[in-house]
Amino acid sequence: MTNRNDKQTADPLLLAGVLEKLRTHDGLTAPRLHSGRAASTAPLLELAATRRYASVHDLDLPSAAVALVRDCVRSDLDSAQQIVADVILALGLHSETYASANVEGRVIQSLYTTSLSRRRETLLSNWHILHRALGHEPGEVPSDRALRGTTEPAILRELADQLVRRNIYSVGSTAVVTLDALPPGQEAPTGRVVVVGGAVIEATFRIKSLPALETSSEAYGFDLSPGGKALIQAVATARLGLRTSLIAAVAGDRFGEEIIQYLQDEGVDTSLVKRVPRSRTAFTGVLEQELGDGIAVNWPNRDQLFLTPQDLDDRNDALSDCDALLVTFEVPRETMQHTLALAHRDADARPLVIVTPSQPYVDERISGVSFSRIDYLVAHPWELASFASLGVAPFDPDQWHGTSWRSGWRPSACSSTAAARSTRARPKK
Fold it and tell me: Topology of 192-196+228-282+303-356 in CATH?
């Protein structure tokens, strides 16, 4: 949990200024941070996200800062922003991709040289080539003056905003454990995970404050990216090195293709995805304020995109063969309950079952039998409150530890993060 001091000391403008200084000469490197040649790097090195990253990956602060920035550029900036930030900070994120796309070696070398002016010149003269190498449609090439005075400062400010957001709300890294960060001698994790739920496109507007009714305001950032609880869980487990498959209904439009491509790029098996031709992708609109607070509006397109019990029957072999089953309430209640029943067909050799009950079903309660088939129920307290006895407000998961809930269920609240475990379930050995 982040303390209040993190919110007070993480200044995006100050951090953006540090990044602007670090773009000079050989860019952002651990040796440069070690040597102290970069002026006043404390705002970056002292970020709580940097310290957490260093702790998780057993790195010193300069190395953790570089790794954190690289990860943030890769995960949180859009395509054009990534390309510019990668080059001006000399991160080398896309060097292998450029090489595999037959970009000339001398061009790649110039993109990450120790001269910022040379990096800029190479970026602008190869603008279209670099974008197409990464599979993006290039926009208009900015002038050198626009790149220096407008584009770069805006991108570094966006990067600083994302670092501050991680400083407050993340555990220090989007992928907390990566395979290349494992200590020497430690084996990568093994196991098979199946995730059942939804996959959408998220349109995120970053704003300073919510506009008043019947008014409008200008966003300072925008992102269009694959999302949905099940998709995010599948990507997270794949990044941990686990063999992961997603079962979800995905539209046959161009956004659906982007979702499939994103999953495949992240190493998620998409062979179990239900493709729905002549349908429209589900969308989530997010208004995100500067400190990470926000609101969201979902359009799940339930008329076209849904999983039926028969869809899960057709994929039953995958359910019986996995070590862990993650299910979200993004699927219809009947499908969710049927999925749990399939997972429990062999009580002696079944997967660990983890359920995310968000958003809670409206006017629909899951059965006591289905509830008993859940090993872990992971949710916010307000979401768990729908499973508690009526008349309890505010809901506190800790006070329900070991006590009876509706229909005689006896889950146990594990922590303040509200993960509840059913005592009747027998995890797979």
Answer: UDP-N-acetylmuramoyl-L-alanine:D-glutamate ligase (3.40.1190)
